Amino acid sequence: MKWKGRRQSTNVEDRRGMGMGGKTAIGGGIGGLIMVLLFTLLGGNPEDIVNYPPPDNGTGSNVAYEESAEERELADFVSVVLADTEDVWSEQFKKRGLDYENPKLVLYSGSVQSACGSASSAVGPFYCPGDHKLYIDLSFYEELKQRFQAPGDFAMAYVLAHEVGHHVQTILNLGGEAAASEKRSNEYSVRFELQADYLAGVWAHYAQGKGYLEKGDLEEALNAANAVGDDNIQKKSQGYVVPESFTHGTSEQRKRWFYKGFKNGTIEGGDTFNVSNL
Fold first, then answer.
1. Measured in Å, how far apart are the chain's first and last C-alpha atoms?
2. Partner residues linked to 105 by β-bridges
């Protein structure tokens, strides 16, 4: 991606080096339920949220944070990508006579407190509908390269665009009341995540039109989508696949829905809740 020198978002909140404070919301309301069910992107284990030890006091702690040059560049990069999602979605909402509300991006290290509860970096990047904020520990991108074998700047951009997709879902109420049945919670979660992948593809469609994507960028995003499929993660982590436990979709599904959004470039084509065959 030719991202350097482009506009950076002002909607970035840097909490790196800060303790999370407060008590976890898991098991204590709809915010915690959504956190476990929908926002442990890229293979995060919900137990990492539930079992993460609370801080020693209710105020949290501040630790001097020294940013490396690599981290500075990553922070600049995600700020540029966020700015681009702001431009794309503002324009798409405007076409529909709507105003787009820019989400906040919170950079944190180790652990963080959100309106959805407390979380450790083990859960991966996530979006909290309770405060309309995206949360990312930038160390995840090293994990994306090493653990998931999905290197490249556009692979990183796909992750952020997926979380922004959750924000678009929230403010447009996409999916409606589909999660009402607890028995179908996993199916709903898969459809919800695939829809976010589709919306990430819509963003990529317009990013391509701006002329700063380079050869191989699309393949990087598709490789990342493939790497974080439930079947691929389960094979690597436990040696076998349990389809009934899927929460994000298979590698094939995640690639297909991202690419569908990339080709279509419209919000309307991503209604996974009315598609019988995902």
1. 30
2. 12, 134
The whole-angstrom distance between residue 241's C-alpha and the CA centroid of its chain comes to: 23
Query: Which tokens go with 273?
Result: 């809740």
Q: Name the token pair of 144.
A: 């994306």
Q: How far is residue 194's CA from residue 153's CA, in Å, rounded to a whole number?
A: 21
Six token digits for residue 235: 């094979």
Distance CA 33, CA 144 (A): 26
> What token pair was written down for 136?
């990312």
pLDDT at 210: 86
Q: By the 8 A CB rule, do 26 and 117 touch?
A: yes
For the whole model, what pTM was predicted?
0.83
Side-chain-side CA neighbours of residue 4 (13 Å) = 3
Distance CA 83, CA 38 (A): 24
Report how far residue 224's alpha carbon sits from residue 144's, in angstroms, rounded to the nearest whole number: 8
| Across 4-18, 39-53, 61-75, 223-237, least confident range | 39-53
Q: What are the counts of helices (DSSP H) followed by strands (DSSP E) for the chain?
A: 9, 6
In whole angstroms, what is the distance from residue 92 CA to residue 254 CA? 23
Please give the Cα distance from 86 to 11 (Å, whole number): 10
Residue with tokens 């696949």: 241
Sign of CA dihedral 220, 218, 3, 270: negative
Q: Show the tokens assigned to 237.
A: 């982590």
Compute, in degrees rounded to 10, the torsion defined by CA atoms 66, 68, 73, 79.
-20
Residue 153: the pLDDT is 93
Asked if the model's pLDDT at residue 29 lies above 50, the reply is no
Is residue 11 exposed (0-12), middle (13-18) or buried (19+ Cβ within 10 Å)? middle
Tell me the C-alpha to C-alpha distance, in Å, between residue 194 and each of 4, 29, 92, 162.
30, 25, 20, 9
